[in-house]
Write a structure and sequence with these properties.
By secondary structure, the protein is mainly α. The chain is built from 29 helices and 3 strands. The chain has a 3-stranded antiparallel β-sheet. Helix 1 runs antiparallel to helix 2. It is elongated and about 125 Å long.
Length: 615
Amino acid sequence: MASTDGVACRRAELRCCRIGHSGRDVALSKLAEALYDRFQKERKTDDLNEAIASHRAALELRPPGNKKRSSSLSKLAICQSDRYGRQGAVDDLEEAVTLGRAALDLRPPGHPNRYVSLYNLACDLRTRFGKQADMHDLEEAIELHRTALGLHLSGHPDRSSSFLELALCLSTRYHNQGVVADLEEAVTLGHAALDLRPPGHPDRGISLNSLACDLRRKFEKQADMRDLEEAIELHRATLALLPTGHRLRLSSLQDLALCLSIRYDSQGVVADLEEAVTLGRAALELHPLGHPDRSISLTNLACDLRRRFEKQADIPDLVEAIQLHHVALELRPSGHPLRLSSLQYLVLCLRDRYINLGVAADLEEAITLGRAALGLHSSGHPDRGTSLNSLACDLRRRFQQQADMRDLEEAIELQRAALALHPPGHPLRLPSLQNLARSLSDRYTNQRVVANFCGTALPGRAARAVRSTGQLDRYTADLDEAIALERDALRLLTPGDRSYDRSRRRLTARLQVKMRSQVVTPPSNASPSTNSDIKRVIRNVAFETLQTMPTRLLHTQTGILCNRDAQLSQFMNSEHYDQLVSSCATCDPSQQMRLDHPYWCLDILSVRHAFSPLG
C-alpha cells in the first residue's frame, strides 16, 4: 500500500510540473524511482517499463553538463539490466552496458558515487559474458570489481557485495580457463563475504550457497575432503534459510544433492546416495512441465538412480533412470548445449539393462544413440576418444551376440582412433589399450574358427590349402598386436592389484594361444623329435611366459636379482628344465610338441614359481 501511495504522490507532483517546467526532470526521476521500488516489491513488469520510460524522459531533460545526468544514466542502466534479467532481451543488456560506461565517465576518481558505477557496470559485463562468452567482458568485470573493492573500505555497507561479485567473476574465469589461483581467491573472497553477513543478514543465504559451490569445485580439483564436507554443511545451512516457496530453494536442493552424490562416489556411504535421491525428487517437483530447467532435475535424479542401481542391483531404479533420461533428451533437441550429455547418460543406462536383462533392443538403441553422441564430438573435442571407445564396446557386444564381422571391424577401427587420441600419459590410455586388444583377439579367434571349419568341410587338397601354416599366418598379426597391447597395458598397472593380475592372465592366455598355433601336432606315426627341437620349444615357452612378469625378479632358490636374460638362464640351468626335457624326450611322439600336454603346464608353472617380485 505504501509503495502504491508513493507512486500516486509522485504522479501528482509530475502533473504539477508541466512540459517546460524547470523541475520536471526531478519529478520524472522521482516517479521512476517510486515505480522501480514498487516493481521490486510486487514484480510487475508494467511498473518496470514505466520506470524506464520516466528515466528516459528525465535523461532527455539532463543534457551533457547537467550535474544530475550521471544519476539518470546510472538508474536507467539498472532498470534496463533488471528488464534483461526478467525478459532476456539482449538489447536491454547492451543498453545497460552503454549507459553504465557513460555514467562511469561522469564519475571520475574522487566522485562519491564512483564505486556504484564501477560495481554496476562490472555486474552487467559479467552478465553479458554469460550470454556471449567474450573473455574481454569478464576480464574487464574483474578489473572493475577490484577497483570498486578498493573504494569499499572496511565497514562499508556494500563491501560484502563487492567480495561476492568478484568471487563470482573469478569462479567463472576458473571454469573457463582452469587457473587454480582464481578458484583459491574466489574461496577466500567468499569466506570474507560470509563473515560480513552474519546470521540474520538478508543476503546470508546467497553467500552460503556461492561459497559452497566454489568449495565443491575446489574439491573436484584437489580432492580435499574437508572442502566437500564444508560445502555440504554450507548447503544445508542455505536450505534451512529457504522455506518452501522460496525462489532459490530449487537450486539449493540441486546443489546439496550434487555434493552428497559426489561424497557417495568418494566414500561409498549409501545414506548420502539415498538423501541425494530424495532431494532430487523434491527438486523435480519444483520443476513442473514447461519449466526451462526441468531437464536438469530429470538428468540429475536419473544419474543418482543409476548409481543406486549399481550399488543395490534393483532393476526398477534402472528402469526409472532410463525413463527420466528419455524425457530429458526430448527436452534437449538438436542444437541444445546439453543434448550430448543426455545421449551419453542414456547410452550407459541402456547398456546396463542389456547386460543385466539381455534385451537386444536396448543394445540397438545404445548403438544408435552412441553414433549420435559421436557425431556431436567433432574432431578435436577433448571427449571424442571416450565416445569412440563407448560406441566400439557396444559394437563388440553386438558382434558377440550376432557374429556380424562388420560390427567387429568397425569396433577395431574406432578403438584405433581412440587409442591415437590417448597417447602415453593420458589417463584413458589403459582402457584404450585393453579394449583394442580384446577386439583384435576376438577377430583372431573368429578367423581361426572360420579357417578350421573350412578346412574340415573341404575335401582333400583344398582342406590342406586352407589349413596350411602359410595360409593361417596372416591371422596371427591380430594376435601379435593384441599381445603387444596387453603388455603395454600391463606396464601401466601395479603388481599385486587385481587389475594387474587380470591383465597378466589375459596376456598369458593369448601367449598360450600363440604358442599352440606355432607348434604343429605331428602324426601318430611320426619319428621322435630330437633333443634340440624339444629344447628350442621349451626355451620359447619359457621366454614367452617370463614376458608376462616384471623385468627384474628375485630367483627364489639363490636370492639373486635377475633381469630377463638372467631369468631365462636360471631356468634353463634348473632341475625343472632337465626334468621337462627328459619327460618330453621319452613320451609318445604324438604328445611331444602338444602345448596342451600336462608337461607344458608344468613348464609354465615352474617358470613362474622359480621367481618372485621384489617385496
